[in-house]
Amino acid sequence: MSEIGFYHLTRTPLAAALPKLLGRVLAQNGRAVVRVGDAERLESLDAALWLSADPDWLPHGSPRSGHAAMQPIWLTTEDEAPNDARFLFLVDGAESARLGSYDRVFDLFDGQDEAAVAAARQRWSAAKAAGHSLTYWQQGPRGWERKA
């Protein structure tokens, strides 16, 4: 089973929080897939990752740029890992039928959106019932804080 971390965004938007988490994956020579809800979000995150200042280099690709197998970070709307990623980032309520294929899953959700919080609770319940190891993280004044 996979380790799934639920990341409750309360202080910064996704475009600011995601680069730092992806940077940690790359620092470990890891590969990641970022599954988004729609093509518009994919395009906005693509731009945000290229413009990121912290970290300042997040090499990535998407179906538009191609060469999936060469990309350390792959942005997609599909439930796929064409870059052999061991880390999965789910945003916009995106889900995966392949959670067990990853070492670690990051489920990021907007704490200012009641519907997103309710949907995250449902994903938590389903993941727990499936036997995955779960953690809950919330943004605090000094960064991510693990909650009980």
TrEMBL record:
Question: Which molecular function term from Gene Ontology is one that the record holds?
Answer: DNA binding
| Superkingdom per UniProt | Bacteria
Q: Which organism is it from?
A: Teichococcus aestuarii
- What Pfam families does its record include? DNA_pol3_chi
Q: One biological process GO term for this chain?
A: positive regulation of DNA-templated DNA replication initiation
Q: Which Gene3D superfamilies match?
A: DNA polymerase III subunit chi (3.40.50.10110)
Q: Where is the signal peptide?
A: none
The cross-references to NCBIfam families, in alphabetical order and at most eight, read: PRK05728.1-4 (NF004347)
Would you tell me the protein name for this molecule?
Answer: DNA polymerase III subunit chi
